[in-house]
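User: I'm putting together notes for a lab meeting next week and I want to include a structural view of one of the chains we've been expressing. I don't have a solved structure, so I'd like a prediction I can at least talk through. The sequence is below, exactly as it appears in our construct file.
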Amino acid sequence: MGAVFSSTKAIVLILAVALAGCQSSSGGMNWSGNEAGDGGHYTLASFNRLVSDGKFIEASELYNRDTTPFYRDFKSNRPSLKQVAKGVKAAFTPKLRSAEQALAQVDWPAPKEQWPSVGDALAQAKSVLADYKSHKVLVLAKKDFPPADDLTQRIQGLEYALYMGAEAAYAAYDEKSGRGFFVDYPADFDIDDRRRIEVGEWGNYLATVATTGKASWMPDDKRKEFSEVRYKERLAAAKAAGLDDFAATLRAIDEMRKDGFGIADYVDARIRLIDITSEALLEANHIDFTVGVNPSGLALDAEAGSLDEALSGPLAEDLDIVVIYGVSQAKANRRITRSDKVSSEYEAQKMQEPNPAFELAKFELEQALREERIRKLENSLYSSSGYGGSDAAALGGLLGGAIVGLFGGKSKIDKAKEKLASTPPYIYRSIYDQYELTKTTVTSRKQAQGIYYIVDRRTDSYVRDTLDIRAESSFTVVKGLHPKDRYKFRHRSGTVTDDDIAAFEESPAQVELTKLLEDVVAGKAKPKPTGGRTALLQTIGEEKRQVAAAYRAQGRRPSADLYDAQPINDDRIESVVYVLNPGISRGTGFFIREDLVLTNQHVIEGSRFVEVITHGGQESFGKVIAADERLDLALVKIAGRGKPAKLFRGRTLPLGEEVLAIGHPLGLDFTFTRGILSSVRTMESLSKPDAEKVRFVQTDAAINSGNSGGPLFLDEWVIGVNTWSYNADVADNLAFAVHYAEVRNFLARHGVTD
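Assistant: Thanks for the context. Below is the predicted structure for the 754-residue chain, given as structure tokens.
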């Protein structure tokens, strides 16, 4: 009996071990790491910290920005989210109630003097409600929320009252006492509603059409009948206001446009748009972006054509109005308004370390094998013992089967083997180094000037005025971002590339025809007699020639007129510029044409745009239009203009002659260094040693960091572009400039010749 009792205890012990192993397998430690990833972990940690601090609005805004990490384990995150939703409701309750009470005090209909306060209360209520509804976390709360529901009903009730009372208010409105009914009235109306309110006798018909959805306009015959009467009324009102025929016509047209009617609905007229921008300006790339006049605002029957065709010839006979416009300048300039250094980290290397999960998997396999050996030993003991006989052996087999059954048909050993096979023996830990990147705010400004004429063929008169288009936008650009920065997506958030800024700067600018007509409609620009078509052609043609001549003469004016130059003893410095590649590098360049700067490729590397500063202090951005890595040369087109340097023309260079370098060594701008022309050598390219060799001019003139891209002068001639030199700890007085012959070939390949 004692042997049987001991064996039974062993069986119970084995079963307990098996059950413990089963429990450990299903509920042990998780070694798989944070499944949400670094970004998700950061978001959840920040969210939970805000919740614990009671900052529910900030937590909700964080949830708005990125909901993904919360749904990876939504069940565990749901209580916190519901707590935030409750907190948002509590925070908004006084705001919603205050807005609702403000609307409750509105007594409508109200006298005209109270309309502004009614509009303000309605706008404020809508803003508060929209702000409340913007919180995504509210979907986890109950849908009904009395403060928000009451405010919604109050807004809808007031808007309905405004809508239903609009016709009566319009009929009683005194146009002379305000800015216009649809400006003063505290409600917004679409074009169909405006027509319903304004058209009087057609109001019921339009309302019926709008509700049935069959059409948004009157039938053609009704529209024609109404628009002709309406146009005559508006024309008479404009003339009664003291406008001459031309201005009165344009004002009536503009008011009919606001009603949604095109000129073809009431006047049988045609208009033509003519662009007289100088071809010389276009060919000289003086126009950075195109400018067009969009007639769609007036819904006129507009066509394009030549100036001659518009004012004379068979095609002109049917024209009523000709709009002639020409652009004298269209420039895009940018400036850096802020530049900040930002500390960050990049992955410098990966360290291999033993994986603790692998060691655990090995231990679990060894434990499973040990338990299996014990089970087999127990079975063997039962089968060979005289005690228990076949019943004991059957019990041992039953227990062994039960253990296997506990694991769903797979033995514990099989599971342990699978786990070990799927667990890597090593893990890799990233080592991060500190570095700095630059975030720069760039403001880009587009400006176009020109002239336009509006010619009324019916009265043989015209008005002339200036065209002025301006647009400005600010962008944030990140420079020097390491490709392995651990926070690169965060750094890039809200930033753009140079290509994005260029797309804004190069995009066409459109001016609405109605904008050109504003001064005429207001009576500010008075019509003049054309004096006949020939005289008008001569007037326009002469102004066009003057614009082109002024452009051609711009580069020939004395330098003091252009650059605010300081008195200097050497006028070669006027050709030299400071080139800044924000956040990356700085160097030197020089004018090779009035609007083209030559510099080193390594100075502009990584950017399409660089900042250029002349000796006179003029600042502008330049666009990189060509670069050669082998020669280390780049060509930059700038918005300003400068004095071109002259490239050497001789076949040979006089060794031993004195040479002069101008640049900005170590940031000391516009520094002169002298030396001699030491030699001419053909050597490997520093940046592309396997490519064709490069011809250099060797000099002992001091060339340091910041001189790169600057000119090497022999008298008044540039014989090379300063590129590199040996460090003082390697050799003294060994500097090199790209030979002028290489420079000429580079320029010729890009269409620049002299």
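A couple of points you could mention at the meeting. Residues 1-39, 204-217, 392-408, 555-567 have pLDDT under 50 and may be disordered. The radius of gyration is 41 Å.

User: Perfect, that's what I needed.
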